[in-house]
Amino acid sequence: xxxxRPGSALLAGAVAVTLSVTALPxxxxxxxxxxxxxxxYGGGGNSxxxxxxxxxxxxxxxxxxxxxxxFSVQYLPGTPSAGSLWQVSExxxxxxxxxxxxxxxxxxxxxxxxxxTADATGTVAMSAASGTVALVSGTTPLTCRTAAxxxxxxxxxDLVGYGSAVVREGSGPATGASATASVARxxxxxxxxxxxxxxxxxxxxxxxxxxxxSGGSGPGEPGGPTEPGTVRVHDIQGTTRVSxxxxxxxxxxxxxxxxxxxxxxxxxxxxDTAPDADARTSEGLFVYTGxxxxxxxxxxxxxxxxKVAEYYPSSTTQSLTQLTAPxxxxxxxxNALPAAVVLDADSVPDAYVPTAGGGSIDALALDPxxxxxxxxxxxxxxxxxxxxxxxxxxxxxxxxVWVTVKPRENRTRRGGTxxxxxxxxxTGRIKVMSLNAAQPVPVADVGDELSGSTTGVIDYASxxxxxxxATELGTLTDNGLRREVTRKQKRGExxxxxxxxxxxxxxxxxxxxxxxxxxxxxxxxxxxxxxxEEIQDDNGAVNDGTVGSDATLKRFTDxxxxxxGPQYAWRYVAPEDGKDGGEPGGNIRNVFLFNPExxxxxDREGGDATTAVTAVKTKKGATLSVSPGRINPTSAAWDDSRxxxxxxxxxxGRPVFVIGNHFASKGGDQPLHGRYQEPVRSSETKxxxxxxxxxxxxxxLLKADGSARVITLGDxxxxxxxxxxxxxxxxKVLKPLITTxxxxxxxxxxxxxxxxxxxHILTSxxxxxxxYDVVHINAEFAxxxxxxDPQIVRVDVNGKGGHKH
Length: 805
What we know:
Layout: E1 35-41, E2 53-60, E3 66-67, E4 71-77, E5 87-90, E6 94-95, E7 100-107, E8 120-121, E9 131-137, H1 147-151, E10 156-162, E11 182-185, H2 195-198, E12 199-202, H3 233-237, E13 249-261, E14 267-271, E15 284-288, E16 301-311, E17 320-332, E18 341-342, H4 372-378, E19 383-393, E20 401-404, E21 429-434, E22 449-461, E23 465-472, E24 475-477, E25 493-504, H5 510-523, E26 529-535, H6 550-562, E27 569-571, E28 589-594, E29 600-602, E30 615-618, E31 621-624, E32 629-630, E33 645-651, E34 654-662, H7 684-704, E35 710-715, H8 723-729, E36 735-736, E37 749-751, E38 754-756, E39 759-763, E40 770-774, E41 791-796
Parallel strand pairs: 7-8, 15-17, 18-19, 21-23, 25-26, 34-35
Antiparallel strand pairs: 1-2, 1-11, 2-7, 3-6, 4-5, 4-9, 9-10, 11-12, 13-14, 13-16, 14-15, 16-17, 19-20, 19-22, 20-21, 22-23, 22-24, 25-41, 26-28, 27-28, 29-33, 30-31, 32-33, 33-34, 35-39, 36-39, 37-38, 40-41
């Protein structure tokens, strides 16, 4: 499963959790100087209410963004019973310094005014009169039901009890909440850990991350400017990534409307038709209208007043400069649009982004002639055009497609763009979306082409960074990418494959089983052994203690038979409930399928979730202490992560040891396009530890038998050039087969338009003759059963000499 949109339990910018002693119980006893719950309202949609739904508003009193990925807000009734449960609403993104973050909750039948566009949405029906809300580091429901118990739960960042709530901070809960009144902190956001003192009742005033308020000024509202002011768009954008006017109000900024977005983050783009002479200052700007639909059209000449803001989609991204709470005057309509900036192989630099030694690049002066990300920032919000671009990332479920304006940049054999090292970024990639309902993004595969011109405005978002919001799309040229089929293994070849089947469980639709089964039976030509990643327990995300996956595997193996494959048997070690990470309740694990007509599995009892497999030296070579077994499963390296599965097989009388892996995800890493350069790969530490554990085990096998045939494979969630791979291959005990392929074929996964390798097969020195193949059936296609391509190696267990591929 790809790891582009995860988070960690506590990200950079989050408050450190400490406890102090107070006279009365407090749920989070150290006052927060960063993220706090700033307002709580449970009367939305009630009789007499104005707003239609409940909400929780967060605020950041700190000087840096507060990351919310992996966080949640949770609600408990004011007087909880023994059976009362905390209700969880998951969060994402970040709260900007001094900014707000709006979590919409359940709607009622009353009220007439909608909330501003929410930054997160839950389904909790909160009480208008009494309840408790907590901001929590994590998404697991809290279990405390008293103020004293909650006081010692270090996951709680802030807590607000209101009405007559039993769980609260300090001397008592905040009072005065009702169908028409919220409880809120003052403008100073003071947090003394006493809800009664810190929050007061008043008219609900929900504000979202972009500064939008319900019932606020919308575009075209009477009272807008009638004469141009002194500030121009390029003055707002400035020569760095952050506006020199951030936080200031501006009046009568002139521009022509170049694009309108009516869903999601609503608003419109304007561009000044009288640019300055500085290539660093963009002439385009996004105007955020909140919940109000933009009352302008492309070609309108407008004057806009509002507040300059920097919107950070998350704590590690760059920001989007915008105007919020706008008042707009339309002067005329049907005007010609400013000429679009051409982005092509000649204009986009080969260097990706300047360095700040790991720090923020926000304050660095832009150099658009030297760095690609500086160039994209210098046209943020402005019209650009690209032509005859090759698709490097297939159309997604979010109607996005990745293209490159550099057709020769690191091209793969099948038309993608290879990600080959941390220092060799692909600068021509850009994500394309459509603002034109009459011209949606076409369904495209890697290697296809958007022929002709694609024109629109440059935006910035959390996922993928700079993107082109197209008002005019090129036409799709289908270049006929086809799914591959590998050859059948010969009688004397042992065929071993790895396949990440993306959270497969027995509750999935039959179509998913059938497509994955065809991949095994047809595309992989029925390997002798298949190491599977992301097999879940039999009821998937249902969190009821189930850990077995036999129903899942029976459906899968039956589907393989129906697709023309053999009747596979399987082996796995069931995890402890909730201990292996992945989707909550899913109990993800590695599994071996094997064809008993071709290969024998050597069963040795005793393997379980916490027992470590060891190598045993015998007169006939190495054996395993348990089979199947797990590598050092109680090591801290595997905390909340999938443990490697080890099995002993026999093929034509020869022992073969197979190690199925699924290393920790890249969740929490800073993005390539982010504000911190070079980005920190914080998740790498755990994968290096996991790789060292596997390396140590392989060494023990080879110490017991220097000629042991070991195949290590799976989703390692890291690249061939990573420190993870260095740790795994240390001492040359394993050879990564991906590096034996031609450079243009060294990939099995596509992310943000980059063709890359997260899946691997490695072999021990005794395996001298092999035939290795990455079988491209998923990652390059818009229609995919998994986001990973499988890999296969065919081994001559008796062979000597070199390899082939």
